[in-house]
């Protein structure tokens, strides 16, 4: 390991240096601490690292810019963060900067060939820059000039030809102002990162339990008798969850892990803040591991529901909570009839599990009086995701697992404030009550027609129907599906505006004119206001709202806070006579919170309550009163047909995954330590038997072709790596594999891209000459995309991108 501040890397990823080792069977430990400190010091030095990490997730400090896992409302540890949280802070804390010299040195043509790893590691953006049509380089622009340009383009367009994207990093106050700006303009085009991740959760939970959020607290996780962790890799994506699972285990609870990949964090947790985690054997976590096929979860939960009903027949009154069902739910008779019988052959085929495995886990459910189902993107990104989550809700309703200690539904959000952004009104399908409240509070007339979600925005780009695209954080070109089609569409837009902290791919595949506006991050001090330093707030996965306030000196004097940027965009667009007092909100964030308190239920006395020791918890009827605010005032049992993913002959089901050295589209490094993959990312993890049947060898270079409705997409130059994934399934990192996800491949109802539902086959990698010839057949735009993302349409596909 190298300790000490290091310059930005000059070399980019060299996939020929890929190393493969045996996967780990335990997570965290002393190694995690050492890696976290090494990365942090390399970016920011010792002093700045210490100043930030000691305030990370602490009261009066700042919220981790990584995942949304909650903090305890009781005693907190001195190190209240995980390895990847420390890496996330290091990325933001870095003393490396990107200014005018960088943009003058590197043309867009050169940067197009760089990976996201290289771009992100160059440092923090330090001044606003612009590139106009025909120019090859970004160059500095004043803040006034930037806002005038934005106002000119928006006024020259129409509201519904403007799109406003939001990343989960955005704080509550910013999100509220941002959606107000869009609606005051006259559009609901408010796609966000939730469209790509947990939209399926909200689409399933709202009609069945009356709220699109989880119904548990951190204490419930600790007190549960049984926890299912489904389609989730907590060791990498939510490492602090491992501590909560450990506490559950220490109290006698049990854990069932359901995942196609045997992730280290599902099996053993070595808590580096305890003696047993440092010198002992750690804490075994999963009592049972179900290595399910990708897309087999709906079949599993239908089987579990059937088995619970069968157990109730054998011992009436001991399994099913009939009094709860009668008093609080609807649809039970139809559900009971649908689950009365089960086709075990189909269930085993769909899940890849044996009947004995499923019956063993069902017996654990029967014995549990308080169960929690946790899930993440492994469940939400398939065509039948909404039905799958509804099936999970059915099983929870059967045993009355709402409104009691240690029980409930727990969709684990992947980004710090993605849930809070939706609470603040970032949604393309707003409810009438919200629009009415906004109109009353601000004297505007909000549009009532629905706007574009993320996939619909892509399609609008493709049709040339977007003049202005504003991205509040995030990296839209690499976060969404069908990379080549998306990037070609973005380049048709008149103006793209990126409010960012670091360079990313979306800045390179920009509109005809493009602005990059550098903003403060979570760790930065925000004190350039008439009333001095300001703070913001966030909402975690369990509906706790609390403050976040950075204390570090920003790396540049030219950075503006996000609320200030929104206000100045609005002023430049609407002029001085607009009914909303944008400047007053930008100068004093208490003013924003007062508006929120009058508009959003649950935020009464916001300014007082957010200043309390632990913040406050938003109302949650299923959790608080065991009631359900659905359209019928009851929890709803639903009936769905059996469905699972069935690839064509010669194909596997491919899912995208994160590396351990990655957070969403940000790469911290190139070491996927727990899976044993390092110094490379273009890999396909494949079961050894599937590898043998395919006729390829371990580490062989292949081109990957995905097929959907008769159309092929391909991504070239991946290495096959034999790995103990579920048979018939494979895995690849995103965003490298995003080019394989057809934009039409989405979840029903939620419209979430099918990142966990690709049918792929492999072809020998084309020789470089043949590859260039094939790319040339596709025209200049596709060939250019092939040089960068190495994703393109197959020459034999039936339709273009």
UniProtKB/TrEMBL annotation:
Sorted UniProt keywords: 4Fe-4S, Iron, Iron-sulfur, Metal-binding, Molybdenum, Oxidoreductase
Listed Pfam families: Molybdopterin, Molydop_binding
Domain Molybdopterin dinucleotide-binding span(s) in chain numbering: 652-758
Signal peptide stretch: none
Residues in Molybdopterin oxidoreductase domain copies: 124-487
Residue spans of biased composition, Low complexity class: 771-784
Domain of life: Bacteria
Region (Disordered): 771-801
The keyword Coiled coil appears for this protein: no
Cofactor list: Mo-bis(molybdopterin guanine dinucleotide); [4Fe-4S] cluster
Alphabetized PANTHER family for the sequence: PROTEIN YDEP (PTHR43105:SF4), RESPIRATORY NITRATE REDUCTASE (PTHR43105)
Similarity comment text for this entry: Belongs to the prokaryotic molybdopterin-containing oxidoreductase family.
NCBIfam families named among the record's database cross-references: Fdhalpha-like (TIGR01701)
Protein known as: FdhF/YdeP family oxidoreductase
């Amino acid at each position: 390991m190298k300790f000490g501040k290091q310059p930005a890397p000059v070399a980019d990823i060299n996939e020929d240096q890929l190393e493969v080792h045996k996967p780990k069977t335990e997570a965290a430990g002393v190694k995690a601490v050492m890696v976290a400190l090494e990365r942090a010091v390399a970016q920011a030095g010792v002093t700045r690292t210490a100043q930030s990490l000691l305030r990370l997730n602490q009261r009066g400090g700042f919220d981790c810019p990584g995942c949304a896992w909650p903090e305890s409302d009781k005693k907190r540890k001195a190190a209240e963060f995980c390895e990847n949280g420390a890496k996330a802070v290091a990325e933001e804390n870095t003393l490396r900067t990107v200014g005018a010299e960088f943009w003058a040195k590197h043309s867009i043509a050169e940067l197009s060939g760089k990976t996201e790893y290289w771009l992100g590691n160059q440092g923090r953006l330090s001044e606003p820059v612009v590139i106009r049509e025909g120019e090859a380089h970004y160059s500095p622009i004043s803040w006034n000039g930037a806002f005038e340009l934005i106002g000119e383009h928006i006024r020259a367009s129409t509201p519904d030809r403007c799109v406003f994207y939001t990343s989960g990093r955005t704080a509550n106050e910013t999100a509220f102002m941002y959606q107000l700006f869009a609606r005051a303009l006259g559009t609901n085009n408010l796609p966000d990162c939730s469209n790509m991740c947990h939209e399926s959760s909200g689409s399933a939970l709202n009609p069945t339990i009356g709220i699109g959020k989880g119904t548990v607290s951190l204490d419930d996780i600790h007190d549960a008798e049984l926890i299912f962790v489904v389609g989730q890799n907590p060791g990498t994506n939510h490492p602090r969850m491992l501590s909560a699972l450990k506490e559950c285990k220490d109290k006698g609870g049990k854990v069932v892990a359901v995942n196609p990949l045997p992730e280290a964090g599902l099996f053993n947790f070595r808590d580096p803040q305890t003696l047993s985690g440092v010198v002992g054997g750690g804490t075994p976590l999963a009592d049972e591991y179900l290595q399910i096929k990708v897309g087999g979860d709906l079949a599993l939960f239908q089987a579990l529901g059937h088995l619970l009903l069968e157990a109730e027949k054998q011992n009436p009154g001991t399994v099913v909570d009939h009094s709860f069902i009668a008093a609080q739910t609807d649809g039970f008779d139809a559900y009971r009839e649908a689950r009365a019988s089960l086709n075990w052959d189909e269930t085993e085929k769909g899940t890849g599990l044996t009947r004995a495995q499923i019956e063993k886990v069902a017996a654990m459910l029967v014995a549990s009086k308080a169960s929690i189902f946790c899930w993440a993107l492994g469940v939400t990104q398939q065509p039948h995701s909404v039905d799958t989550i509804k099936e999970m809700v059915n099983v929870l309703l059967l045993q009355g697992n709402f409104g009691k200690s240690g029980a409930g539904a727990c969709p684990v959000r992947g980004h710090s404030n993605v849930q809070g952004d939706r609470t603040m009104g970032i949604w393309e399908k707003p409810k009438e009550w919200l629009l009415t409240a906004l109109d009353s509070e601000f004297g505007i007339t909000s549009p009532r027609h629905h706007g574009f979600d993320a996939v619909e925005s892509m399609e609008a780009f493709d049709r040339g129907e977007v003049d202005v695209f504003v991205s509040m954080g995030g990296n839209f070109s690499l976060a969404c599906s069908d990379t080549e089609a998306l990037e070609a569409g973005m380049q048709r837009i008149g103006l793209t505006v990126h409010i960012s902290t670091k360079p990313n791919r979306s800045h390179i595949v920009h509109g005809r004119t493009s602005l990059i506006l550098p903003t403060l991050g979570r760790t930065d001090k925000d004190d350039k206001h008439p009333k001095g330093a300001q703070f913001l707030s966030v909402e975690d996965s369990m509906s706790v709202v609390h403050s976040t306030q950075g204390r570090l000196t920003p790396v540049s004097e030219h950075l503006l806070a996000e609320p200030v940027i929104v206000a100045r965009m609005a002023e430049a667009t609407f002029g001085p006579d607009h009914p909303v007092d944008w400047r007053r909100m930008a100068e004093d964030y208490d003013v924003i919170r007062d508006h929120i308190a009058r508009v959003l239920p649950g935020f009464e006395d916001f300014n007082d309550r957010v200043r309390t020791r632990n913040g406050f918890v938003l109302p949650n009827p299923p959790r608080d009163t065991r009631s359900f605010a659905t359209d019928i005032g009851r929890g709803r049992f639903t009936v769905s047909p059996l469905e699972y993913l069935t690839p064509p002959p010669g194909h596997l089901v491919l899912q995208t995954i994160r590396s351990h050295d990655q957070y969403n589209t940000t790469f911290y490094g190139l070491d996927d330590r727990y899976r044993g993959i390092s110094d490379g990312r273009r890999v396909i993890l494949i079961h050894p038997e599937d590898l043998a049947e395919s006729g390829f060898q371990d580490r062989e270079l292949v081109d990957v072709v995905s097929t959907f409705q008769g159309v092929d997409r391909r991504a070239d130059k991946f290495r096959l790596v034999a790995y103990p994934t579920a048979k018939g399934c494979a895995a690849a990192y995103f965003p490298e594999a995003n080019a394989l996800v057809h934009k039409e491949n989405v979840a029903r109802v939620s419209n979430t891209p099918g990142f966990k539902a690709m049918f792929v086959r492999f072809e020998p990698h084309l020789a470089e000459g043949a590859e260039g010839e094939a790319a040339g057949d596709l025209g200049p735009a596709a060939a250019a995309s092939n040089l960068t993302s190495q994703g393109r349409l197959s020459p034999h596909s039936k339709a273009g991108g």
